[in-house]
C-alpha cells in the first residue's frame, strides 16, 4: 500500500503526503460502483481502503471513530441514493447519524472535510471517481490527522521565583 | 492490629461525591467497618502517604480508588496503592471513564488554567498568578503536583481489577461489591460490578416507550412540563438510558429527570458517546438533510451531552490538540 510515494531513484522532491482514507461502502450501490470503476478501467486515487458492508445503515459511529483513532486521515461513507436503500430506510438513518457525528467530530477538532457522505448508485462509477479524487485532494491539503494524546507538557518552566 | 482484611479508599480528580456514597451506606457501613479495617482514607482518617509506603506490598485486601487521573500526585498515589493492594476497584464514573473532569479533554491545559485562574467571572487575580510546579520562596523550594495535558481514566494508568460504575455508585452496589470481595465471590477480573443490561431494561417507564421513536425536536427538561409516567424520550427529552448500563435503579428517572449516562456503557459497547449518538440520531423524524440539521441543532453540545462521563475512555479520548502544542509523549 502506498504510504508515501517516493521515487526510488531521484528522491530530490519531498514525498507528497498521501492521505489514508477508510471508505465504508454499501454492498448494493457504492461498492458496485467501485467494482464498475474497476471493470471499466476508471482510475481514481489509490488512497481509499474500502470496507464493504451490507448497508450504510450498518455503519456504527464507533467504526468511524475507530478508523480515526487507528490512523485514518479521513472517512468516506458511500450508500444508496435516498429512496433507493435496499433495506428501505438504512441510508436515512446513516444521514441522520452523519450530521450529528460530523458536528461531534468538529467539536473534537476533526475538520468537516475529513468525514464525508456520498450517495452513489451501482451505475455511477464516474461520480465515485470524482468524489474519491476530490476527497483525497481536500484531505491532502489539510495534511495528516496526527491524532495524539499528549500527557506531560514539555515546555514547563523549571522554577519560578516568588518575591 | 487485628487480622481483619485491610482496605483503603483514595480520591483523585473527583468531587467528593464518591466519599459521600460510602457514607450513604448508612447503617450498612457498620457491617463494613466490622468486617474490614480501613487503613487509609484521606477524607475521613488521618493516615499519611508514608503510612501507606510503610505497608508491605500486597498487604491491602482492596483499594477503592475514585476520581480521574490528571496530576502527577494522583498518578504516584494510584501506583503506590496498586502495589499495596491485592484488588483495585475503580470506584465511580470519573475513575472508570474519566467522568466530568474528563471534559477538560475538550481543551488544552493552558485553556483550562486560564479559565480557572484568569477568566471565570468569580476569579479575582489581578497579578494573573498561575500555579507553578516549583517556586523559590525565601530560599526554600516549594513544589506542587503538575497537571497533565490529558485527563485519564484509572485503567489508563494502572491495572484495574473491578469497576463500580456511577456518579456516584449506589449504596446497594457498593455493599454488594464489598460483601462479594469478603466472601471471595467476585466475578472474573475486569468485570463491572453492576448488571450488564441497558437502563431502559429496568426503567419504571419502560412500558410507555413506543416501538418506534420519532422526534421533531430535543427539549431540555426545563423547557417542558414532564409527565411522570411516560418515557422521557417519547416526550422529546434526550435520555441516555438506551446507551447506558442499568443497575442504578433509575433514581434520575424516578426524579423525573433523564439519564445522563453515568453508569457508562454495557460490556458490548466500546464507546458510549458513539453508541448514544447512533441511537439518538436515528430517532430524528425527517429524511431531509436541512430539516435533520435543524432538529439536531436542538442538541447544543453533542460531546458534553453524549460523553458527559466518558470522554477520556472514548475511542478518541480528547479533542485533537492544536498543531504546535509542544508535549512529551
Mind explaining what this structure looks like?
The complex is a heterodimer of chains A (about 160) and B (about 325). In chain A, about 35% of the residues lie in helices and about 15% in strands. Chain A has about 160 residues and is an alpha/beta fold. Chain A has a single domain (about 20-140), classed as Rossmann fold, CATH 3.40.50.960. The radius of gyration of chain A is 19 Å and the shape is globular. Chain B has 3 domains: about 5-100 and about 150-185, 3-Layer(aba) Sandwich (Rossmann fold); about 110-150, no CATH class; about 200-305, no CATH class. Chain B has 11 helices and 10 strands. Chain B has a 5-stranded parallel sheet with strand order 2-1-3-5-9, with helices on both faces. A two-stranded antiparallel sheet of chain B has the order 4-8. Chain B has a two-stranded antiparallel sheet with strand order 6-7. In chain B, helix 2 packs parallel to helix 7 (about 170-185). Classes of the chains: A alpha/beta (about 160), B alpha/beta (about 325). Strand 5 (about 150-155) of chain A pairs antiparallel with strand 10 (about 325-329) of chain B, so a sheet runs across the interface.
Amino acid at each position: 500500500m502506498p504510504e508515501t510515494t517516493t521515487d526510488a531513484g531521484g528522491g530530490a522532491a519531498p514525498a507528497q503526503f498521501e492521505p489514508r482514507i477508510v471508505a465504508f461502502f454499501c454492498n448494493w450501490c457504492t461498492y458496485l460502483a467501485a467494482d464498475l470503476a474497476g471493470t471499466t478501467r476508471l482510475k481514481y486515487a489509490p488512497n481509499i481502503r474500502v470496507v464493504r458492508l451490507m448497508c450504510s445503515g450498518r455503519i456504527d459511529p464507533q467504526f468511524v471513530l475507530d478508523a480515526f483513532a487507528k490512523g485514518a486521515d479521513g472517512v468516506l461513507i458511500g450508500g444508496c441514493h435516498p429512496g433507493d436503500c435496499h433495506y428501505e430506510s438504512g441510508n436515512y438513518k446513516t444521514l441522520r447519524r452523519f450530521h450529528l457525528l460530523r458536528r461531534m467530530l468538529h467539536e473534537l477538532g476533526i475538520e468537516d472535510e475529513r468525514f464525508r457522505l456520498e450517495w452513489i448508485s451501482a451505475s455511477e462509477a464516474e461520480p465515485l471517481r470524482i468524489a474519491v479524487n476530490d476527497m483525497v485532494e481536500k484531505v491532502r491539503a489539510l495534511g495528516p490527522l496526527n491524532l495524539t494524546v499528549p500527557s506531560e507538557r514539555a515546555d514547563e518552566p523549571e522554577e519560578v521565583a516568588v518575591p | 492490629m487485628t487480622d481483619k482484611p485491610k482496605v483503603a479508599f483514595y480520591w483523585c480528580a473527583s468531587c467528593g461525591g464518591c466519599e459521600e456514597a460510602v457514607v450513604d451506606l448508612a447503617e450498612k457501613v457498620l457491617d463494613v467497618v466490622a468486617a474490614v479495617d480501613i487503613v487509609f482514607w484521606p477524607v475521613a482518617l488521618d493516615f499519611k502517604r508514608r503510612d501507606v509506603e510503610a505497608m508491605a506490598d500486597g498487604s491491602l485486601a482492596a483499594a477503592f480508588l475514585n476520581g480521574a487521573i490528571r496530576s502527577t500526585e494522583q498518578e504516584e498515589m494510584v501506583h503506590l496503592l496498586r502495589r499495596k493492594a491485592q484488588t483495585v476497584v475503580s470506584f465511580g464514573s470519573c475513575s472508570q471513564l474519566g467522568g466530568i473532569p474528563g471534559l477538560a479533554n475538550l481543551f488544552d491545559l493552558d485553556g483550562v488554567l486560564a479559565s480557572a485562574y484568569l477568566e471565570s467571572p468569580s476569579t479575582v487575580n489581578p497579578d494573573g498568578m498561575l500555579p507553578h510546579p516549583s517556586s523559590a520562596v525565601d530560599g526554600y523550594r516549594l513544589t506542587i503536583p503538575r497537571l497533565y495535558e490529558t485527563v485519564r481514566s484509572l485503567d489508563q494508568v494502572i491495572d484495574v481489577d473491578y469497576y463500580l460504575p456511577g456518579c456516584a455508585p449506589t449504596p446497594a452496589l457498593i455493599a454488594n461489591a464489598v460483601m462479594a470481595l469478603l466472601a471471595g465471590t467476585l466475578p472474573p477480573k475486569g468485570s463491572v460490578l453492576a448488571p450488564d443490561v441497558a437502563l431502559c431494561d429496568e426503567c419504571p417507564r419502560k412500558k410507555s416507550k413506543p416501538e418506534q421513536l420519532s422526534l421533531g425536536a430535543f427539549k431540555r427538561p426545563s423547557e417542558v412540563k414532564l409527565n411522570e409516567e411516560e418515557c422521557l424520550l417519547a416526550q422529546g427529552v434526550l435520555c441516555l438510558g438506551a446507551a447506558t448500563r442499568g443497575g442504578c435503579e433509575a433514581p434520575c428517572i424516578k426524579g423525573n429527570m433523564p439519564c445522563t449516562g453515568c453508569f457508562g456503557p454495557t460490556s458490548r459497547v466500546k464507546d458510549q458517546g458513539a453508541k448514544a449518538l447512533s441511537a439518538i440520531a436515528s430517532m430524528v423524524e425527517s429524511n431531509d438533510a436541512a430539516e435533520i440539521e435543524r432538529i439536531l441543532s436542538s442538541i447544543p453540545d453533542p460531546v458534553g451531552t453524549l460523553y458527559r462521563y466518558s470522554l477520556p475512555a472514548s475511542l478518541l479520548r480528547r479533542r485533537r490538540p492544536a498543531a504546535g502544542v509542544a508535549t512529551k509523549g
